[in-house]
Amino acid sequence: MVIIFTGPIGSGKTTQLEEWVKTRKNIAGILMPVLEGERHLYSIYSRKLVPVEIHEELSSDEIIKIGKFNFSKRVFDWGNKEILSGFEENNAIIIDEIGPLELEKAGFYYSLKHILDNRDKLRNINLILVIREGMVEQVTKYFNIDEYSSVSSAGEIKSLLN
Question: Which CATH superfamily is domain 2-161 in?
């Protein structure tokens, strides 16, 4: 099952998922919390927290630029590996979030594409995608996601999965 968790920017989607994940087993994926004003990737699978936003000068092939933000390509590569490691061993995967980066084949594009291309395994897991309000149609069309449930709270996810 594909579940799309959507809401406005800054509405607490990640915070809700952080709390919800604490009560679940057999779940993996990546959350993207903002801590002290900086974006991080948190692997639910390995429980590692890594800063993804960068400010120092790096070569252009090491940076992913989106709007006013500069992200580390290396950290996103790590995040994709964490998602795929968890995909093989768990019955639910969260990817926080899917948006403009993925529409440019960056960010979590490669892990999401791998999961969506693996339809047999996808039938046996719950894929939870965080997509900001206003981008759901664009993302689902781009990735050919035809069947999904849309929710606006972690409580609704819990109801769908129980």
Answer: P-loop containing nucleotide triphosphate hydrolases (3.40.50.300)
Nearest to 5 by CA among 129, 156, 147, 159: 129
Contact 93, 27 (CB under 8 A): yes
Beta strand pairing call for 126-132 and 34-35 = unpaired
* Structural tokens at position 131: 């997509």
Any residues with CB less than 8 A from the CB of 32 and at least 6 apart, and which? 14, 39, 40, 41, 42, 52, 96, 97
Tens-digit pLDDT profile for residues 2-58: 999 999 888 889 999 999 999 888 899 999 999 998 999 999 989 999 999 887 665
